[in-house]
Amino acid sequence: MAARLFPLSSRSDHTYDLVCAGFGPASLAIAIALWDRGVQARAVFLERQRNFSWHAGMLLPNARMQISFLKDLATLRNPRSKFTFINYLRSKNRLVSFSNLSTFLPLREEYNDYMTWCAAHFDPCVRYGEEVVSIGAQRVGNGPVQSWSVVSKNVDTGEQTCISARHIVVALGGKPRIPPALLGRDLAPVVVHSSTYTTAVPQRLTDKNRPYNLAVVGGGQSAAEIFNDLPSKYPKCKVTLFTGASALKPSDDSPFVNDIFDPDCTHAFYMLPQEARQKNIQSNKATNYGVVRPELIDHLYEVMYQQRLREPDENKWQRRIVPWKEVIGCEPSTSDACYDLVLAGTGYERKSHESLLSPTKEFLQSNQFEVERDYKVKYRKDAVADSCGIWLQGCCEDSHGLSDTLLSVLAVRGGEIVESIFPSSEWESVQSAKL
User: Fold this and answer.
1) Residue 166 near residue 16 (C-beta atoms within 8 A)
2) What's the alpha-carbon Rg for the chain, to the nearest Å?
3) How far does CA 369 lie from the centroid of its chain?
4) Are 48 and 133 in contact (CB under 8 A)?
5) Could you tell me the CA-to-CA distances from 284 to 39, 67, 258, 281 in Å, in that order?
6) DSSP per-residue string spanning 25-59
7) Shortest CA distance to 227 belongs to which of 313, 293, 320, 312?
8) Which residues pair with 377 in a beta bridge?
């Protein structure tokens, strides 16, 4: 039975059952779980982007997903869901053709289209171009918090709106991380983060035939993909990749190691002592952080070897990799040795929830935004009523493991969040009473 999610009310005094701050893959998985469960609720999703988009800045030609399509937004929770990747292919009349590719890894472009197709089903309940700027408590007198106020801002007009909700999911995604050495007003015109690569670079480098001198900073997948892609866009350019590591290192996606992304492993990780959690994260960093897919490493090494074959003088190579180098300073220059553009493939920070939820900090059990196993923020029982709460998504790696920021667990996690907010027993009782 499909869910009935009521769209945003024009009444400012209405209290919603659920408000999601952000409408990326995590919130989309929750919307799909609501649909599959048949939950009827007043729900709205507030998203600062003007339309649904997933890593639009890195949708490079021929770039493939790094996880199986079976780890989509629904299959591992409900293989019969309308929102499986297979059903998407069927609806687009590409199921047979895709099967002939004999791959579990779709193009990144196609997976983005899949999620956009899913998101379109929820358009009436999504307000795009609306950025959540603050979340505060609503209480009567000295009683416990019964609901939350959500203040959002229209990204075009700046107009602010305040609505109320009993349950809130904060799923803001990552904020681009740029090394301090590359920050500053003077450097802003010449520094581009990987998150805006496909849109910002053509605006900054307008002449495709100019011999640009370009720098890429980072040693992970994004940096390597940009390093690989730039010469195809600017054939006469020179590109230097700076990495603090000794070399580009391969990601480990072997079967046994990949088991850490099994949704069932999340519970086991959560039950570990804090010290054991950190040790586990460090030991498995090679699955996700500062590493590159082996096939891309092989390709780049082949390209570098061909340069060495044809030109012994390394200074004349189009591509160069400089290891053991951490960028500690950068300043504007007009010399011939300067770089026309610096591309930062330096990852993301996931702390935006802390400032967003700062008005609620006085209700925390501790001084940190710690969460329960079901991702619900640990507020004091005497301060916040059981009938309301706030859940965090994509910023719980310390408590829920490396998979927290990845797509692998979204289907199952979305179902867990829905069950936590709308418990089956309670929801079914309400529906029976209405009948």
Assistant:
1) yes
2) 23
3) 19
4) no
5) 37, 16, 10, 5
6) HHHHHHHHHHHHHT-EEEEEEEESSSS--SSGGG-
7) 320
8) 371
Tally Cβ neighbours within 10 Å of residue 423: 11
Instruction: Give tens-digit pLDDT for 343-355.
Output: 999 999 999 999 9
Token pair 């529906």 in the structure block, residue: 431
Whole-prediction pTM:
0.93
The residues, ordered by sequence, that sit 6+ positions from 244 with a Cβ below 8 Å of its Cβ are: 219, 324, 325, 326
Beta strand residue intervals within 243-349, DSSP E: 319-322, 341-344, 348-349
CB atoms near residue 219 (< 10 Å)? 26
For 150-171, write each residue's pLDDT tens digit: 999 999 999 999 999 999 999 9
CA distance 256 to 58: 29
Q: Which residue's entry shows tokens 């493991």?
A: 401
**Share in percent of the chain as helix, strand, coil (round to 5):** 40, 20, 40
Is 1's pLDDT higher than 80?
A: no
Of 322, 341, 183, nearest to 243 (Cα)? 322
Q: Does residue 187 surpass a pLDDT of 60?
A: yes
CA distance 402 to 172: 17
- Name every residue whose Cβ is closer than 8 Å to that of residue 151 and which is 6 or more positions away in sequence: 132, 133, 134, 135, 136, 160, 161, 162
Token pair in block for residue 189? 């015109």
Report the alpha-carbon distance of residue 213 to residue 197 in Å, rounded.
16
Distance CA 220, CA 288 (A): 8
Q: List the end-to-end C-alpha distance of the chain, in Å, as a whole number.
A: 16
Q: How far is CA 255 from CA 73, 85, 161, in A?
A: 21, 22, 48
Contact indicator for 222, 345 with CB cutoff of 8 Å: yes
Which of the 8 DSSP states describes residue 5? Answer: E
Question: 131 with 46: CB under 8 angstroms?
Answer: yes
Q: Over 407-424, what HEC string results?
A: CCCHHHHHHHHHHHHCCH
